[in-house]
Hints:
Layout lengths: L1 H22 L1 H21 L5 H20 L1 H4 L3 H10 L2 H31 L6 H26 L5 H29 L6 H28 L1
Amino acid sequence: MKQAAFLRRALALLGHDVRRETRQAQALAGSLLYLVAGVFAAQLLLRPVGPAAWLTFYWLLVLFVSIYTVSRSFLGQSRGLHLYYRVSVPGVAWWLTKVMTGTLMLWVLMGFCALLMALWMGYPIQDTGLFVLTIFLGAPMLVTVLTLVSAMSQGASQPAQLMPVLGFPLLVPGLLLVHRLSKLALDGLSWDLVWTYAGAMVGLNLMLLALGVLLFPFLWRD
Length: 222
């Protein structure tokens, strides 16, 4: 019974947070403009673009746009709104809601980035299915880490500057894994080589999610 009530509340919070994000159209428009400007500059400066450079630039652009987008999870909230959620919403439910909302947004942005780069810089990926799987597994990893870092940075005097300092070291293992997976998609190799990296990505996502569930109630309380 308690689990069902918690699930209903989490789904209600997710719907509320998604509606709130869609009403703040300027934030999503800023992320899309960031991607358009980045890809446009790259296709002017890096012509011609080799497959390895294409892939590296894709993940660098995704990394920076994810920091820009996910940092608003808590840093963009007013103190009054934060206090309201603290007294009315369980911490774990709110944490999961933020992770799910950020993941949905990042999936859209990562797909949009790949589409732009394919139109302006070519599409060297040999195995699109594996590339989609990499995006599917990579977005939750980025969002989970950055959402937790955003919550940790909220009380700092300069939270925007603290986000990259705390986030980059935590993101390095996940970035290495997603880059390796997407390199397999780039080369079109057999899926027999995929499962080790995909399993490691799933395990990393679960570990980061569990870490957030354990730590976030203390950050929420503070």
